[in-house]
Specification:
Structural class: mainly beta
Distance between the termini: 39 Å
Helix content: 10-25%
CATH class of the largest domain: Mainly Beta
CATH architecture of the largest domain: Beta Barrel
Strand content: 35-45%
Shape: globular
CATH topology of the largest domain: Elongation Factor Tu (Ef-tu), domain 3
Number of domains: 2
Order of helices and strands: EEEEEHEEEEEEEHEH
Strand order of the largest sheet: 10-9-13-7-8-12-11
């Protein structure tokens, strides 16, 4: 479990194929990793399979993860957001994030607003019902607040988010160009509510 508060941006050292899967090697900068530890990489919960005292770590990335997330496009030198898992003593400064990607969004625009930036992302329409104004969303593992949720059009919809200077400076969102993809995890509580309400919604008259 994570909180969506990115600890640092690191560089991918190498990407190696392992059959249909890949081994991702990252210079994490974490000197006290443990074998089997969970680390969120661009919001994807990955397991440390090897590491050294200098913070280099290997992660196994399955075909499902490669297909669902933007890690399929990771290359040596790619910047990635990192967050280690929370503990029961950790302040939950963001929101509950599982590290399970629901889909990918594309950056639509960036508009300067003084020191802040208003960014818009285009998301798959299937995620529309889980996004509400002032609700939470995780993009590349960064906990963010939705300022506006647009209408569905052409199978997609748009959300707007204001990024404060700290978030812009301390995540890899500042490296995005229009059209680039980010990993999306919607609020897990919204997914459970939708699932539990399905039987009752089916009973409503058309």
């Amino acid at each position: 479990m994570f909180s969506g508060i990115v600890e640092q941006v690191a560089k991918v050292r190498a990407v190696a194929p392992e059959g249909p899967s890949r081994r991702l090697t990252i210079d994490t900068g974490f000197s006290d990793l443990s074998l089997g530890e969970s680390v969120a990489v661009n919001g994807v919960c990955l397991t440390v399979t090897d590491f050294d005292a200098g913070g280099r770590a290997d992660f196994f990335v399955s075909p499902e993860t490669l297909d669902r997330s933007n890690l399929g496009g990771a290359r040596a030198g790619s910047p990635v957001n990192l967050e280690r898992s929370v503990t029961l003593e950790t302040r939950l400064s963001g929101h509950l994030v599982q590290g399970h990607v629901d889909g990918k969004a594309r950056l639509a625009s960036v508009v300067d607003q003084g020191d802040a930036r208003r960014v818009a992302f285009s998301l798959p329409a299937a995620l529309h019902g889980f996004c509400v104004e002032k609700g939470s969303i995780a993009l590349n593992g960064t906990s963010l607040t939705l300022n506006a949720v647009g209408e569905v059009s052409g199978g997609r919809f748009e959300v707007a988010i204001t990024l404060i200077p700290h978030t812009w400076d301390h995540t890899n969102l500042n490296a995005l160009a229009v059209g680039d993809e980010v990993n999306v995890e919607v609020d897990v509580l919204a997914k459970y509510v939708e699932r539990l309400c399905q039987p009752y919604l089916k009973l409503q008259p058309a």
